[in-house]
Design brief:
The complex is a heterodimer of chains A (about 160) and B (about 775).
Chain A (H helix, E strand, L loop, with lengths): L2 E8 L2 E8 L4 H8 L18 E4 L2 E4 L12 E3 L11 H8 L9 H14 L5 H7 L11 H17 L2
Parallel strand pairs in A: 1-5
Antiparallel strand pairs in A: 1-2, 3-4, 3-5
Chain B lengths: L14 H5 L15 E7 L5 E7 L1 H5 L3 E6 L25 E2 L5 E7 L2 H9 L2 E6 L6 H5 L14 E9 L2 H6 L3 E8 L12 E6 L5 E5 L4 H12 L6 E5 L14 H12 L3 E4 L2 H7 L6 E9 L5 E13 L5 H10 L10 E9 L13 H19 L3 H8 L18 H12 L1 H6 L5 E9 L14 E7 L5 E5 L8 H13 L6 E3 L18 H28 L6 E4 L2 E4 L6 E3 H11 L5 E7 L22 E10 L6 E11 L6 H20 L28 E7 L16 H4 L1 H13 L10 H15 L7
Parallel strand pairs in B: 1-12, 10-11, 14-15, 18-19, 25-26
Antiparallel strand pairs in B: 1-5, 2-4, 2-6, 3-5, 7-15, 8-13, 9-10, 9-12, 13-14, 16-24, 17-18, 17-23, 20-21, 21-22, 24-25
Helix pairs in contact in B: 9-10, 10-19, 14-15, 15-16, 17-19
Classes of the chains: A alpha+beta (about 160), B alpha+beta (about 775).
Bound molecules: FE2/S2 (inorganic) cluster (FES) (2 copies).
């Protein structure tokens, strides 16, 4: 196992990390950066709980090697609420889209990435965006509602 | 009465913690100097352990402890309240299934712990294995636990009324054979725990658990400790659904921490979950049901053979539940039931939302449709004709004060468009309906205790904290309790904290299962809040110089009923109360012991097991694809008699989530196990429902106001999937005329059934 020194920007601040070549981005985030908001549900790329944004795109961080993230901009769930709750976060709360909350960080980030590229997605587009994200609690209905509420809010804000 | 905070769909009071990633779940929790554990599992289904050699593993740099059966207490134990002790913490002489815990390692990292597992040598002498419970019952089948003499873990045999007479008086009798599969709870957060020992030998465990109380009882027994020396601190759970009660990982991590002399954390991989979880009890049913021309049920006979798996967790009480509960749905008096839970070389089966009822309702509610078909009666109509009603005492002695079944039948059918869809039948489309009921607390779970306790603490800053022994499992119980305390104290729920359960602080509570938490725990919280309010009122009386009886409360103020200008705020009263007591906070106490509930007769299983019974009806429309065999649920109307909706938003969430699990159970999910263990041990191979597969979902709340529930509320979470598989199976029959007898109805199975039908009838199903 070889050691590498990488530079990543997590939630706006640059940091240098020593990582093994086999370390995943997920282990870097949870263990080295201590950001446990990013969850691990399977570690094999099949549940979406570990989703973070890498250069704005949702990625299963358990499938990405830490070394591949060298130089990347990473947004974890902790980075979304620097200036108060993001409208997507608020919408998840208001719509009752959060039960146990274990899928929530990944879902919220997937929803944010969707809305960043498509301000008013259709139901089908929303479903497609979160189809790789398993939620065992909600039956997805209120999650889809939440994304629609957030979409409306963001459109109103014109941001 | 006008209610301010209950009956409102307010968002969860802890949701902000979750959407920001701040909530520290079980798998996030860490202690300084903590080590990481991993478990070595059996690779064979049934064997004697001839030799275990851990020397190489112990020598690996970074390994701090290796344990095997030799490090475990010799005595056997089982989960709380169950009579048969059949397991040790790690296997000692034998292994009983692929996945059985054989050894464990604690190391400075998970990777090193995993590497060490590979260095442990285990030599097995394989024994014949048995996987099918019906086979396991037969003479000559390999016996798992020789000391028990047979593979029968539990057996039921009871009769109500006169079934022979009932069948003799029937105009039609139908018979069915049904099979249900093993499924995993698939909570998104895998099992995990952290254990640490104090210098004086006390054990503390941080566990995301549904019941700190049961964990403490069971692990004290398993580890040979005084329960006083075991402290369980509940952590937030990333889903549970019955799967997070007692589990071997917990005492294993305690032993690792002891041997390593440091705190240890152990988290299951997803593969561990699928290989060695505690999945739903698989069951086979043989059912006979008789009825009169008008649809009245005359008699019912049922045989159940259930797979207990390798060890006895909660399969025996689950069997009782599966064998009795559905009989109380309808006015049926003549019943004969025999049932067995049988050991097999498979994972130990246990609780999963529904406690035996998704299984039995699939069988029974399918049989009802068969009878309706035979008699030429509409499936909705036959249910309406037989439905139990408020005030009924059922064949099993259950006293049902509030029964909203008829309402649920009517409302779900209406929301689905039953009449219209029946009239304008489309090819390959069909509608189906099924009912279910549940309990709000199950008295027969623990022989020596029932009920729930709560404390409501109000400090000098008027900061309110609710303590209960019932954990929030993600369904929103903390919000429910906050709403109840808010209602009684007259302050907003988001100003109230609801503490996580800690066995050294919280009142003793059995935990969140059997749909007991809202009803039993909610009543206790309500009474505790009222007690706190009474004490505050007495202080207000002192402050205002008038009798407590002459004081009213409104808008955060205590005031004289005669002279509303004489008043003092709640906050000021709390401050004074604290000063007057030398700084001691006000603590309101509440206990709720469900009235009129008894331990069922150990032989006949007769007796009122719960203080309130929730009902539900699921009505679905499905479409069967004749090319692929895929069954798609198009519309799902779920009407739930939950007594009273303390939080309608959260209630809908329970119904939608439960129904979705029901769809997975009916159409997709199955643990494929055999001599290699679970073959589909990943989310790729074991599919649970995804967003794109969701039907149009209509949750309907029916409020029957139970006299025993807090504000009338009964249980809700479990019935949310009890009826789903049967409703889907009944809809498939309506769509293509095929009676499904085995779930899940995968596309492959459906296609086979369609082809068989084609062969026997020789023509395609043009009109379905
Ligand atoms: S933990 Fe990465 S997809 Fe499941
Ligand atoms: S809220 Fe529990 S998994 Fe989605």
């Amino acid at each position: 196992m070889s050691k590498h020194s990488i530079m990543v920007n997590i939630n706006g601040s640059d940091a240098e990390y020593e990582v093994d070549s086999s370390d995943t981005l997920l282990s870097l985030i949870r263990e080295k950066a201590g950001l446990t908001g990013t969850k691990q549900g399977c570690n094999t790329g099949e549940c979406g709980s570990c989703t973070v944004l890498v250069n704005g795109k949702p990625v299963n961080s358990c499938l990405m090697l830490a070394v591949e993230a060298d130089g990347a901009q990473i947004t974890t769930i902790e980075g979304l609420s620097a200036n108060g709750l993001h409208p997507v976060q608020q919408a998840f709360i208001d719509a009752g889209a959060v039960q146990c909350g274990y899928c929530t960080p990944g879902m919220v980030l997937a929803a944010k990435a969707l809305l960043d590229s498509n301000r008013s997605p259709s139901d089908d587009e929303i479903k497609r965006a979160i189809d790789g994200h398993l939620c065992r609690c909600t039956g997805y209905k209120k999650i889809i509602d939440a994304v629609k509420i957030a979409s409306k809010k963001l459109l109103e804000e014109g941001s | 009465m006008q209610r301010r905070w209950v009956g409102k769909g307010i968002p969860s009071i802890v949701a902000a913690e979750k959407v920001t990633g701040k909530m520290v779940f079980g798998t996030d929790f860490a202690l300084p100097g903590m080590l990481y554990g991993k478990v070595l599992r059996s690779t064979v289904p049934h064997a004697r352990i001839k030799r275990i050699d851990t020397t190489k593993a112990e020598r690996l740099l970074g390994v701090k402890a290796v344990i095997t059966g030799a490090d475990c207490p010799e005595h056997k134990y089982t989960v709380a309240g169950q009579p048969v002790a059949d397991m040790t913490i790690l296997a000692r002489e034998k292994v009983y299934y692929v996945g059985d815990e054989v050894a464990a390692v604690a190391a400075i990292s998970e990777d090193i712990a995993e590497e060490a597992l590979e260095l442990i040598e285990v030599e097995y002498e394989e024994l014949p294995a048995v996987f099918d419970p019906e086979e396991a019952m037969k003479e000559g089948a390999p016996i798992l636990h020789e000391e028990l003499g047979s593979n029968i873990a539990s057996h039921l045999d009871f009769v109500r009324g006169d079934p022979d007479e009932g069948f003799a008086s029937s105009d039609a009798i139908v018979e069915g054979h049904f099979e249900t599969q093993m499924v995993h709870q698939c909570y998104l957060e895998p099992h995990g725990a952290v254990a640490a020992w104090s210098g004086s030998g006390k054990l503390t465990m941080w566990i995301p658990t549904q019941s700190a109380t049961l964990c403490r009882m069971t692990y004290a027994k398993a580890l040979g400790l005084d329960p006083k020396d075991v402290r369980i601190i509940q952590l937030p759970l990333g889903g549970a659904f019955g799967g997070k009660l007692e589990y071997k990982l917990h005492p294993i991590v305690a032993l690792l921490a002891k041997k390593a002399g440091a705190p240890v954390k152990l988290v299951n991989s997803r593969r561990d979950e699928f290989l060695a979880g505690t999945p739903r009890v698989p069951m086979k049913f043989y059912v006979r049901l008789g009825g009169k021309k008008d649809g009245t049920f005359t008699a019912k006979e049922m045989r159940i053979i259930a797979g207990n798996g390798a060890y006895t967790y909660y399969a025996p009480p689950i069997l009782v539940s599966a064998a009795t509960r559905h009989d109380c749905l309808y006015r049926i008096k003549n019943i004969r039931t025999k049932a067995w839970a049988v050991y097999t070389n498979q994972p130990a089966t246990s609780c999963f939302r529904g406690f035996g009822n998704p299984q039995s309702h699939f069988a029974f509610e399918s049989t009802i449709d068969m009878l309706a078909h035979e008699l030429g009666i509409d499936p909705l109509e036959i249910r309406l004709r037989n439905a139990s009603q408020s005030g009924d005492v059922t064949a099993h002695g259950w006293k049902m004060y509030s029964v909203g079944l008829t309402d649920c039948l009517k409302k779900s059918a209406e929301a689905l468009g039953w009449e219209e869809k029946k009239k304008n039948k489309k090819p390959y489309r069909g509608v189906g309906i099924a009912s279910c009921l549940h309990v709000s607390g199950n008295r027969s779970f623990l022989p020596f205790f029932d009920g729930s306790g709560a404390m409501v603490r109000v400090d000098g800053d008027c900061h309110v904290t609710v303590y209960s022994g019932e954990p929030d499992v993600g369904q929103g119980l903390r919000t429910t309790f906050a709403q109840i305390a808010a209602e009684e104290l007259g302050i907003p729920p988001w100003d109230i904290e609801v503490a996580l359960v800690d066995t050294e602080i919280s009142p003793h509570g059995l935990g969140t299962y059997a749909d007991r938490a809202t009803t039993l725990g909610g009543n206790a919280v309500r009474i505790a809040a009222m007690d706190a309010k009474r004490q505050l009122r007495e202080t207000a009386a002192q402050i205002l110089g008038i009798a407590a009886g002459e004081i009213s409360f409104g808008d955060g103020m205590f005031y004289s009923s005669d002279d509303p200008e004489r008043k003092v705020s709640l906050a000021e009263t709390a401050r004074k109360a604290s000063y007057l007591r030398g700084g001691a906070p006000i603590v309101g106490h509440g206990t709720f012991i469900p009235p009129d509930v008894v331990m069922i007769d150990p032989k006949t299983k007769y007796g009122n097991i719960s203080c309130a019974y929730p009902f539900a009806v699921h009505a679905v429309e499905v479409e069967v694809d004749p090319e692929t065999g895929n069954v798609k649920v198009l519309k799902f109307a779920a009407a739930h008699d939950l007594g009273y909706a303390i939080n309608p938003l959260a209630s809908e969430g329970q119904i939608e989530g439960g129904g979705t699990q029901g769809i997975g159970y009916a159409l997709r999910e199955e643990l494929v196990t055999g001599s290699l263990g679970t073959e589909n041990a990943s989310f790729r191979a074991y599919e649970i429902p995804r967003a794109s597969e969701m039907p149009e979902f209509v949750p309907i709340l029916v409020e029957s106001n139970d006299p025993n529930g807090p504000y009338g509320a009964k249980g809700l979470g479990e019935p949310a999937l009890n009826a789903t598989a049967a409703a889907i199976a009944n809809a498939i029959f309506d769509a293509v005329g095929i009676r499904v007898t085995r779930i899940p109805v995968t596309p492959e199975r459906m296609l086979n059934l369609l082809n068989e039908k084609l062969k026997t009838e020789g023509k395609p199903l043009s009109s379905g």
